[in-house]
Design brief:
By secondary structure, the chain is of the alpha/beta class. Strand 1, helix 2 and strand 2 form a beta-alpha-beta unit. Helices cover 43% and strands 18% of the residues.
């Protein structure tokens, strides 16, 4: 009797162990019952926030939903590289299943921290993954790291600015000298401005504290300014806009959120869509369908035109009907 009882208990225990293993561990396809992701965002501003929102939506569309089978640890570096490094290190120590890095500095930091720990990194809003040393010249990853690029449609932006400001000559750009994405985009602008009749005036900064004085200097030399996806500059865009408005100098944005808060117009990308694209890539990695090292980085190829009609009226700028008709979205007020 005792032997039969013992055999029954052993059989039940083995069955329970098998069920637990199936539920909590990885299946043959790589699926798990739940995942933990660390999200490191370099700064808090509209475009990066939209990337994060889109990223989580992309995961949800793939069946990985926060509160159900996904735990998210979100940390913001407040545009500080030292803080970004600490955040990446903490995620590695916590042994998260994946790090999502939003913006170039955090992507570099996350990959450097995770490359020897077996933790995949999926990035978004990295303008030039090759210059950032996250991808090879052919777009292939340098390791277990992949994601999406927010490369700006520079020529489309120049063409649009020339249509809006036919008499402008000097075009200003402020950028952070340590941001690989900004340095790369500056080079592209430099190679194209002459074609559209502009002279490029650059102003480099190193930290947020430089922005106010740099803006004053730049605005004294130019007819208009175009803004990049430079994280330090974007975080201080309200300061730049305030100074530019006093001088009636148009400031162009690089995406929809910058136009909402007071830039005249932009030929930019949809950052929520970019984030969704990234989330779907991340889901493939988490489910074991592909390794990050097997996925070339991706980008959105078609820009959209966004315009703020209130800003145009205040600056006395006439928006050609052809551009108005092509606008993805236009705004009649300035968001606070």
């Amino acid at each position: 009797m005792k032997n039969k009882l013992l055999a029954g208990l052993l059989t039940a225990a083995m069955a329970a162990a098998m069920m637990t293993g199936c539920a909590g561990g990885a299946s043959e396809s790589g699926d798990k019952e739940s995942y933990k992701i660390g999200i490191t965002q370099f700064a808090e501003h509209g475009s990066l926030d939209n990337c994060r929102e889109g990223f989580l939506a992309g995961l949800a569309e793939a069946g990985i939903k926060e509160g159900e089978n996904l735990t998210v640890d979100l940390k913001n570096a407040a545009a500080d590289m030292g803080t970004a490094g600490q955040i990446s290190g903490s995620f590695v120590s916590d042994k998260v299943d994946m790090i999502c890095a939003i913006a170039t500095p955090t992507a570099q930091s996350a990959y450097n921290a995770a490359m020897d720990a077996g933790i995949p990194v999926v990035y978004t809003a990295v303008t030039d993954p090759v210059s950032a040393e996250l991808a090879k010249e052919d777009g292939a990853p340098v390791g277990e790291v992949t994601g999406t690029s927010d490369k700006l449609p520079v020529e489309a932006q120049l063409k649009m600015m020339r249509a809006l400001l036919p008499d402008a000559k000097k075009l200003g750009i402020m950028y952070t000298t340590s941001e690989a994405n900004s340095v790369s985009t500056i080079k592209e602008y430099d190679s194209l401005v002459e074609k559209y009749g502009f002279e490029l005036v650059e102003k480099g900064i190193t930290v947020t504290a430089d922005v106010a004085l740099a803006a004053d200097d730049l605005l004294s030399k130019v007819d208009c300014i175009t803004n990049l996806t430079d994280n330090t500059v974007v975080a201080s865009l309200p300061t730049i806009l305030e100074k530019a408005n006093e001088k009636k100098i148009p400031v162009f944005g690089s995406e929809i959120e910058q136009v909402k808060i007071g830039c005249l117009a932009a030929e930019g990308i949809d950052y929520i869509a970019l984030g969704k694209q990234t989330g779907k890539m991340a889901a493939q990695v988490l489910k074991g369908e592909k390794k990050a090292s097997e996925m070339n980085f991706e980008l959105i190829t078609e820009p959209g035109f966004y315009v703020n009609n209130k800003v145009a009226a205040e600056l006395g700028v006439t928006v050609p009907q052809e551009l108005l008709d092509s606008a993805v979205e236009s705004f009649d007020e300035i968001a606070k």
